[in-house]
Structure formats: structure tokens, C-alpha cells
């Protein structure tokens, strides 16, 4: 009988997490442990007791040991150790563990013991992972792994897979294989546009010339190039920073593809356009794309486009990936898979940086072989919460282009543009030819502080001059109030943060945020949360008002709530989500903006859903506002939470607060949770101490959530610079499978 896969194991094991077996064995020498599996299990239990490993990590190792013993093959203690460590790494977002990295830098690779102080306080004295790993070589580990029936190179159904020097849990190894197979198969299949002299390619050139006007500055239009590249390939990625036109480009791409498909009617065939599906990883991101795609479709130069193209040919309804694939309660399997594929010719996924390997593999599993997949996203944003950094890996070489001479020539014929020489390299590989990077932001003006700071963070180029300009209001969209020295106590800044939360502190911005225009449109000064709370408190609706009046109010309030958002790098402590939520609630309550005396579900309480709830139709990340509506008996107020429908239809869904299962107050949210959202004004709070979660990607993601106003509040200004020096690096083999490393 083949051993169970870890994914099944995670479900099958009834983990007794309340009473971990932490009975500490006598402290053994590393050498003794490496020869004694019982002692090794004891050490893992100690690490678990110190909260350094999760129960699942230890149970996984225990399960492998037990099943090996039952099969008459005692498991090598080295394999026991590595099994627990690979499970630990997966819990930290890695897809695998690389033995070279593990043995050369165990502490930084494993982040054990944890560096944030948390979980080391009161930890029981025990051997450190590095004490044991320093006794091992890559060769010894490989010999132990290769000698175990729990490990194979993938040709057998073993729980662990060793690929080169990378050790995987089988499920994630399989996910990577599936993604690579899906991409490679699509890249190697020519399309009707591959041949530059073909009728469809000529039609593409004509349509693109109508969709894109000549660049006024005479430079290359990267949106047009991206459109052409994505049209040519069955798999394509369009990456770019905020406001670089990803949505605009993909709408033009879909218009071009549909125009080509629709034109076939002239050749005597029945008119048949592509079946297009649009998806995003979260409800919030789907709703945002819904809105921007509808706008972009309206803005297409319809008069100039081929008569065979109709508005309805470009869908504007965006769904979440979970809904698209058909998630089922209590199952990790989706309704759509290779046995029951999606009905689609083209699938567009926005905010693809948030998609983990597991989900991406499910997408390829459910996608019909012929279907084209287009990923949109910002490669520099934080990676997915769960394992992998798929978009980042696919875009590893995007900045330098690496386009081949053949691609350059094809682009010249189809777009009329000559690729800049530095984007053409002789070493161009298959995937490079299908990745396009947009390089100009249309959201921010040239002198935008948000843009300048985001770019500098991204390039790790935070100069003194730039930081000084951020401090002294040189930019009209950015404020960095507070002392420029480390604060002694969080309380020193609490008033500042609390004031920001009420009014958005326009006085901290240049000219108090007044008289500002962006691309000819006036931008209102910052308003903080005070604006939405005022709308909540000033209305005069009562029990006699129809539901539609309440819907209208909820729509206005939800829109006003998106005017401001506090973002935190960390969750705990006075600088974290928990502490700042408490601070805001206390301050607002003191000012009479909210009435906490009404109970936990006070009028105006904003909440974010923290887990998918298929019964209620709510997705992780959905944000709603509590209204005490007079809908009870005798017009008794009852707390209902108003959520916007995720299809962007503007409908409001009222959910009784008592039905919500997983949620949290969201005056402050983590940067992780803010992915896929944008706010008129974002206030990023960085703590007074660096921690491993504070990385360049996190700071960049936090800054780029801001549409018009950005404030930075720092416990210690040096933390900004230090965070930018830390990167999110995730072990994975995907780039290698796609020839990208
Ligand atoms: N070539 C262009 N010329 C002028 N304006 C443009 C151009 N491309 C995009 N825009 C405008 O810039 C704004 C951002 O464009 P779009 O929404 O397509 O970017 P995005 O990369 O999808 O943004 P986000 O970062 O929000 O996902 C829109 O208002 C759009 O109309």
C-alpha cells in the first residue's frame, strides 16, 4: 500500500494541539540524535513546545516514522528531522527546502529560533536546529533521503519528493509540476498569430493601430507591445506597478482578440467569439476589477473598431477564483478539474501576485488545453499568503526583457515599434517572450511623492534627499509627520495616529491638501474615517424607509469608508493591528463618533471577514460596516452588517452580525490583508523595531495601496530603510522548471 499523501494526512490526522508531547528528553549530543529516531522525535517535541514548530510539522514526522516502522523499515532520524523542517518551511510560504541553503545558513533559512523575540521568551533550553544541521552535509542528507521509502524523485507516490537538492511535500511538488506543464504546453503550441504574415496577424496589427494612438512623445508604447505579446501566446503575463495600465491593456487585448475572432464571419464561417472569463483571488480585488474593466470598456475607441466587434463581446463581470473553479465546503478539491473543465477560451486573472501554487495548479487543472491564460499583476508586491511566489518567479527576468530577435521582429511588424536594444538579449527563453512589463504609471503625476517613494523602495534607493523631501512636504500627496528620531513610547505618536484616523490630518500635507488636481480632476483634501462616520450619524432614515433607502445609505457609507485606511506591518503590540484598532475605538468613543455602549456591534463598526464563508457568500477580505437598523419587532434596532456585492453590481448584502463566524474590526489592517485593495488615503504605520516580516515587498505594497494621499508614521524612522533591505525570498523550483534561473 502506498503511503498517504501529506495533504490527506493533514485532514486525516486528528491533531491533539492542546496537549503537545513536550516531555523533554535528556539533552542529547547532536551525534546521538542523528542515530536515534526516538531522541529526534523528542527534540522536535521540544521545538514544538517552544512554539518554534507547528503541531502539524511534528505530527507529519511522527506519521512518517510510524508508517515506516509498520513496513519494517525504521526511518532514519535525518529524514525525520528534514520532514518536520520541510513542513515548517511550507507553513512559512516556501514551496520546498533547498538542502544547500538549509545547511549553509540554517538560522536564516528556517528563521529558527524566531528572531522577533516572540516565542523565544521562556523557551526551554534545547539544541538549536543549527547545532544538529552543522553535523550534516548535503551528501549525507541526500543519502538518507534516497535510502528511505518515504522519498522518491516523483516517479513513486511517496509523501516526500527529492528533486535535485530540493525537498518537497508531494502535494506542492505536484502543484509546481502541474503549473510548469500547463505553461510549457501553452508556450510550445503556436497560435494563429505566430506567423507574422497570416491573416489574423495582419488583422491584429490593424486593430492595434486603432486601439493605440501614436505615443505623443514618440517613444515605445509598452501597453501596445504587451497587448501584442499577450495576443500571440496561449500563456502570457502582463506585469506593472500601480496605474501602469494593466486593466486598460487587457481590455484592448480582449477587444483585439474578439475582433479577430469576429472577423471570421467574413470568411463564410458563423460568427463565433471567444468565451472569456475574468477572475481575481479575492472578492475585493474582483469588485475593483469589475469597476475598472467596465470603465475601460466604455473608453475603447468603438467608432474606429471593426464593425464585427460588439460591446457584449468583452465581459465585465469578474468572479473570484474560488467561485470560478467551484469551491466545495469541506473539500480542497474544486468542482472544475481536468475531468470537468471550465467552459472558457480565455481566462484573465488579475492580482495574480496573490495566487499561491496550490490555487495556480488548480487553475491549470481546470483550464481546457486550448484555453489562453493571461495573468495580470505587480511582480514587486508581496507574495501570496500561502506557499509560493508564482508571479514573482514568472517575472524574474521581466525588467530586462530578454526578447529574442524573432520576437523583436514580430513586434516590429505587428506594432510598428522597434524594441529598445537593452530589452533584446540573445539568451531569450520561451517564457521571456510571453512576459510583458508596463513601465509608465498613469495614475500618479510625475512629481508624485507616492510614486517617488514607491520606486525608491522598490529599487532600494532611499536617498537622504528623498527622505528629506518626504519630511518637509515637498510632495503634494505625501506626509511623514512625527519626530524624525526614534520615539520613546508608542504613546508619543498615539495622538497623531488617532487624529489622522478622525480627519486624515490635511494639515500634515502641503497646502493642507487644498487646491489639488490630478490629471485635470480636483482631488478633495484627506477626510479620515470622520467622513464615513458623519454620514452614518447624520442620516434620518427610520423604520418606515424602504430597504432601498438603506441600501443607498450603505453604498455611500461603504464608499466613504474606502477614503481612508490605516495599514500596519505587524499584527500584535501597540504598533500592530490589534493595538491600533483599540486605540482608534477608544479615541472615537471618547469623541462620541461611535457609541461603544451599544455593545460590540456598535453603529459604524467596520469589519473584515477573515475566512471564506460559502454559506453566507462572503470571502476572506470582504469588508462591511455595521448598521443598527430598526428592522426588529417594534422597530427595535438590530445589528446588521452591510457588504457590497462582490460582482461590482452595487447591490448591498445585509448580514446579521450573529451569523458572521470569522471577522475582525478593521480600522487598522495588515498590509498583507490590504493586497488587492486601494484607498484614497493610506496611512502606513511602521513600528519602532525591525522584525522579519518587514520587507521591501511589504513596504512597497503598503505605499502603493494609496490612490491620492499617503501618510507614513514611524516609531523609528530608521526602520523604513532597514525594512527595505530585507527581501521576501521563497524557496521553490518553478523558475527552474521554466528555464528562468
Ligand atoms: N495609455 C494611457 N494613457 C492615458 N491614461 C491611461 C493610459 N493607460 C491607462 N490610463 C489611465 O490610468 C489609470 C490606471 O489605468 P489602469 O486601471 O488600466 O491601470 P492598472 O495597472 O490596472 O491599475 P491598478 O494598479 O489600479 O491595478 C486609468 O485611469 C486609465 O484610464
From TrEMBL:
Function: A helicase/nuclease that prepares dsDNA breaks (DSB) for recombinational DNA repair. Binds to DSBs and unwinds DNA via a highly rapid and processive ATP-dependent bidirectional helicase activity. Unwinds dsDNA until it encounters a Chi (crossover hotspot instigator) sequence from the 3' direction. Cuts ssDNA a few nucleotides 3' to the Chi site. The properties and activities of the enzyme are changed at Chi. The Chi-altered holoenzyme produces a long 3'-ssDNA overhang and facilitates RecA-binding to the ssDNA for homologous DNA recombination and repair.
Family the entry assigns: Belongs to the RecD family.
Keyword Hydrolase recorded: yes
Stretch list, region Disordered: 1-35
Gene3D superfamilies to which the protein is assigned, alphabetical: P-loop containing nucleotide triphosphate hydrolases, RecBCD complex, subunit RecD, N-terminal domain
Top-rank taxon: Bacteria
Subunit structure comment from the entry: Heterotrimer of RecB, RecC and RecD. All subunits contribute to DNA-binding.
One Pfam family it belongs to: RecD_N
Positions of ATP binding: 240-247
HAMAP family, sorted: RecD
Main enzyme class: isomerase
E.C. numbers: 5.6.2.3
Residues in RecBCD enzyme subunit RecD N-terminal domain copies: 51-168
Alphabetical list of InterPro entries matching this protein: Coronavir_polyprotein_1ab, P-loop_NTPase, RecD, RecD_N, RecD_N_sf, UvrD-like_helicase_C
Organism taxonomic ancestry: Bacteria, Pseudomonadati, Pseudomonadota, Gammaproteobacteria, Pseudomonadales
Polar residues bias spans: 20-31
Keyword tags: ATP-binding, DNA damage, DNA repair, DNA-binding, Exonuclease, Helicase, Hydrolase, Isomerase, Nuclease, Nucleotide-binding
Protein name: RecBCD enzyme subunit RecD
Domain UvrD-like helicase C-terminal: 666-712
PANTHER family xref list: DNA HELICASE B (PTHR43788:SF6), DNA2/NAM7 HELICASE FAMILY MEMBER (PTHR43788)
Catalytic activity of the protein: ATP + H2O = ADP + phosphate + H(+)
